[in-house]
Amino acid sequence: MTPGDGPILVVTGAEGYIGSEVVRIALARGARVHALSRRPPPDREFSLRRFRYDLAEPLADEPFVGATAVIHLAIDNTSSTDTPDGDVNTAGTARLLDAARRNGVSRFVFVSSQSAASRATSVYARSKAESEALMTGEGDVIVRPGLVYGGSEVGLYGLLCAFIKKTSLLPVPRSQAPVQPIHVDDLATALVQIAIGNDEGLRLYQLGAQHPVTFATYLVGIARYRLGRRLIVIPLPIFPILALTKLLGSRSRFFGMLSERLAGLTALAPMDSHNSLTALGLTLRGFEAALQRDAAAAHERQQ
Predict the structure, then answer these.
(1) Model's pTM, two decimal places?
(2) Which domain holds residue 184?
(3) Is residue 286 one of the residues assigned to a domain?
(4) pLDDT, position 298
């Protein structure tokens, strides 16, 4: 495949934790990428074009012309997500979907969440469920990833790493919540394959470790295998803390976002990921071994 001949893949949230890995892997597979983000850096590669994109704003057709697929990762994590059109994430997804359809894009991959539920306490979880309901086209696909880890310490993974670095005793609400880890590189590989590769054409992919671990186990694993630290998790009841952070959230953006994170934990339910992984022919890397490799790679970069 010569430069300029690969399929065009539109990626929203392209500068984010997952999006940047999707862009890297798509380019490595010979795709051309139209990367959409709020503050796009200058183009540096022939096969990569960058466009400014905001969920709350109208969309131009240019990024979608000639595109094969869209991978929609962008999310507005501000504490207030309401607009005159409703939730900014759902309304933004609807606009993006419309732009893709009117430009003849054949595949739309919506990256949802393990916590997506229409009656969830979390605004984020409800928003993901509402956006999932928009995926009615023949080429529309929903991907529900488990808890993503690995790679650069950014996003939610980076936030958790930062907490763990500060203490050896960590109070954790709903420490027994079932989580199904997936390394960011495995998720990005799966998303690119779903968008432009050959698979069995599922409409819903549930991607994460087949056997859930507790949230406490996930945190202790990051501490031990990625950060080389000992961590003791102190279980806390979630609902009193959720009520307090929700009350404080009206006064502070930090507490508003924290309330959303905690509410997301209450919506977690185990996923059956076997069929999805089989359809993709994907074997996930082991949680502990992957963290150890990440730690070794980080150590080498620091030398």
Answers:
(1) 0.90
(2) 8-298
(3) yes
(4) 86
